[in-house]
Amino acid sequence: MVELLTAAARVGGATHLVSAVTSVLQHGPKVEELTCGGMVNQVREAFAETMTSVVQLASTYPIACSNSIGLLCVIPYTRAEERCLVRSGLVQLLDKLCSLSSYRDQSNTETQTMKQRVSAMAWAGFQVLSNRCVMWEDEEGAASAVEHSGLARQVSALLTNHLARATECSGDEAAGTEALQEVLSLLNNLSRSKLGKAILSQPACVSKLLSLLLDQRPSPKLVLIVLQLCRVALPLISAEDCENIQLPCWGQDMHVFEGGIQDPAARIASLLLAKLGDYVVPGAQTALSLASPDHSQPSAPASAAVHGGTGDRERLEETEAQDGRIAVYVHKREDQSSHEVIQPLLSCDGRPFRLGSGANMEKVVRMDRDLTRSGRAEVITEDTYPPSNWLLSETVPSKWM
Q1: CA–CA dist 141, 159 (Å, integer)
Q2: Where is the composition biased (Polar residues) (predicted)?
Q3: What phi, psi does 398 have (nearest 5°)?
Q4: Which of 146, 219, 288, 295 is the most exposed place for a label (fewest CB within 10 A)?
């Protein structure tokens, strides 16, 4: 088969042959059906070589071979085929195909482009593949000592890249949030397995989780998932890997405020403590930035948009000290109506807006629309202060400095 695929690649018609060969491979090597046990290794080697050739050809014509790629993902692999998966580069091909999507119209199949449909197929295939890898542990238990390092690195790279694409969504915000929730939920499910722990122990994955924790765009539900993942991932990081973790812009200068901390692990701990303090007293980090001698130069005013705006503007605002202003957002649960969230704000002391003017009535209408559409809405942008009254009314606020 390898010779046929090689010849077809030279003379043309490779996509048709890929489809035919994949239909043969889709049931796996089936070594359990061999009556001669001495041929097991030869069959597995031939299967691995053929699959590698198929993946190489499919990566050259990914759109035309999309159905074949999907079949490769649902092959009933066993733990013995792990090396075959790593060697074939199937996970790397799925990573390449997942990048074809811009997440702007994922939920509308009628208007999706061909590349977006292929990307959605690749992501679905990857989820099947990753869940099968987790099943290996359930089926064979702890008796097997097969390492997952090679596969874990490839899966970690795909998840980290997919996570980055979801957080950098610049189009349909709802689609971006859905993609972010999908990848975080998959990571959370994988975290219970050895494979998942190997993925979470990768510095690139931890770097992205810390960045997400400070991104301010995810809802409280997604932030909780990120915190759960950090709880699993951080104890798995070695001292050497800590040095390879890239701290978010918000935390790159934490050692300045903490007396010159240089140890990477201590800087990560300081960052988490500072974030905890920022939840208790919103705006505390801004006050530290303004008090620091390294931030004596005047800076541009903070943006009132936390979830919108361009990536360049957000990166600029993260790296500059702000002028002490803060934008406060409220979130609602899926089982809440927007009225249940807005009403406590209107009745609490020191309410954020007066209902006498038409402009503020428009603000209430806009908040109702935003809460209904995306589950969050901007309340106010003023000088930094803790929104304690809203917390007492059981309203969930978030903020952007």
Answers
A1: 25
A2: 290-300
A3: -130, 170
A4: 146
- Phi/psi at 383 (nearest 5 deg)? -60, 150
End-to-end CA distance of the chain: 60
* CA gap 124, 73 in Å, rounded: 9
pTM of the model: 0.65
- Residue 399 has φ and ψ, to the nearest 5°, of -145, 165
Q: How many residues does the chain have?
A: 401
The Cα 217–Cα 273 span in angstroms is: 20
What would the two tokens of residue 382 be?
């003023």
Distance from C-alpha of 347 to C-alpha of 343, rounded to nearest angstrom: 6
Gap between the Cα atoms of 308 and 306, Å rounded:
6
Confidence of residue 268 (pLDDT cuts 50, 70, 90): confident
How do the domains of the chain map onto residue ranges? 1-103+113-135, 305-400
- Tell me the CA distances in angstroms from 115 to 97, 109, 125, 164, 297, one per residue in order: 8, 12, 15, 19, 47
DSSP calls for 276-307: HHHHHSTTHHHHHHHHSGGG-S--PPPPS-SS
Query: What torsion, rounded to 10 degrees, do the Cα atoms 322, 323, 325, 327 define?
Result: -30
d(CA 83, CA 91): 12
How far, in Å, CA of 264 to CA of 246, rounded?
10
Closest CA to 249 of 297, 293, 285: 285
d(CA 126, CA 47): 20
- Residue 227 CA: distances (Å) to CA of 49, 76, 269, 276: 42, 34, 13, 11
Q: What is the pLDDT of residues 184-224, one digit of tens each?
A: 899 888 888 888 888 888 888 888 888 888 777 677 788 88
Tokens of 130: 């990753």
Amino acid letter, residue 329: Y
Residue whose structure tokens are 């795909």? 158
Neighbours of 311 (CB within 10 A): 11
Q: How far apart are CA 391 and CA 350, in angstroms?
A: 13
